[in-house]
Amino acid sequence: MSGRIKILDEATITKIAAGEIIERPASVVKELIENSIDANSQNIIVEIKGGGKDYIRVTDDGTGIDENQVELAFIRHSTSKISSIDDLNNIHSLGFRGEALASISMVSKVETLTRARDSTKGIRVFIDNGKIVDKQVIGCPVGTSMILRELFYNVPVRRKFLKKETAESNYVSDIVYKLALGNPNISFKYIKDDRLILKTPGTNDIVSNIYSILGKEFIDNLLELNYKDDTLNIKGYVSKNSFYRGNRRHQYIFVNKRWVKNYEITKTIEDCYKSVIPINKFPIFIFFIDIDPSNIDVNIHPTKEEIKFVDQSKIDELINGLVIENINKVVTIPKVEIIP
Ligand code: ADP
Ligand code: MG
């Protein structure tokens, strides 16, 4: 059906673009938590119902959004995190594309409660199809709460392709666990269908954070590795040679607190284990890499799951050295007082 070429209206463009970053409830949860992290929150509460298809709520105690900025936040390409292309060389936040809230509000019914730190009152806005349909002044604590209802109610094809409730809620859990693991300084609460599923201490103690998320077996079977120079800090927890799994579920890499996939690092670590664990089994690892942001490119993927290191081989060599050196040691990470 060819016809006249026309430029699509903004609402249609945003709805199409939304598909790129909002694929399922878990994508919404990821974007909302990342916003809460970027807002310097100490406490983040994630609630879902019906696998997130019916209800998602993320509440934080971060900076909040200024009353007269709320409308802007939902417009596409609006962000407080960068101002120019040069800022991309020095990204300290998880977000910067200014697309998440615009996308989310085009494909679900959104309610936002927010109060900025220096404001005496909060506001509540309702957004539907990307537009503010109601706005009220309310009393609320400092921070932001984003509530989403009926994801993809206006994009039936997307809704139809969502999986069953349990499968979708597993995707959500996966993302909550990853973000909680990568941010030990923040206390996360995760509530699924009114049941508290996870609570992390938020004390910035990596080991007690791992304990609260993955449990005692992990703490007892991981080795701690450390490397530090002027531009790079690597902290890794890798499995002892007697601890492995039949899949890669428990392999985590965080770069500047961002969970990323990095095939090279994964392969480097797995190669180290080749001769020590059975074939078709996979080591467990949690790596925290803090690097000068000018040494990475985070803008190569819409959901930013992949990044590029300026010097990938330096990272691979360092990690290879650390793992090889420690893999056969029997020492474990120091025992800590675990406060459940
Ligand atoms: P990005 O995160 O890429 O900037 P978003 O669409 O996710 O884009 O958010 C747009 C803007 O809304 C952010 O830049 C931020 O200023 C504001 N914002 C969103 N969520 C929060 C939050 N939980 N707390 C404070 N500000 C927020
Ligand atoms: Mg964002």
Can you put this structure into words, describing what you see?
The chain is of the alpha+beta class. It has 2 domains: 10-199, 2-Layer Sandwich (Heat Shock Protein 90); 210-326, Ribosomal Protein S5, domain 2 (2-Layer Sandwich). Helices cover 30% and strands 26% of the residues. It contains 10 helices and 17 strands. It has helices spanning 10-21, 25-38, 70-73, 100-107, 156-161, 165-182, 206-214, 216-221, 263-273, 312-326, and strands at residues 43-49, 55-60, 109-115, 122-128, 131-138, 143-149, 187-192, 195-199, 222-228, 232-239, 244-245, 251-255, 258-259, 282-283, 285-291, 296-297, 308-309. The strands form 4 sheets. Strands 5-4-3-6-2-1-7-8 form an 8-stranded mixed sheet, covered by helices on one side. A 5-stranded mixed sheet has the order 9-10-15-12-13, sandwiched between helices. Strand 9 and strand 10 form a beta hairpin. Helix 1 packs across helix 4 and helix 2 (25-38) packs parallel to helix 6 (165-182). The longest helix has 18 residues, at 165-182. The chain binds adenosine-5'-diphosphate and magnesium ion. Adenosine-5'-diphosphate (ADP) binds next to helix 2 and helix 4. Residues 31, 34-35, 95, 100 line the site of magnesium ion.
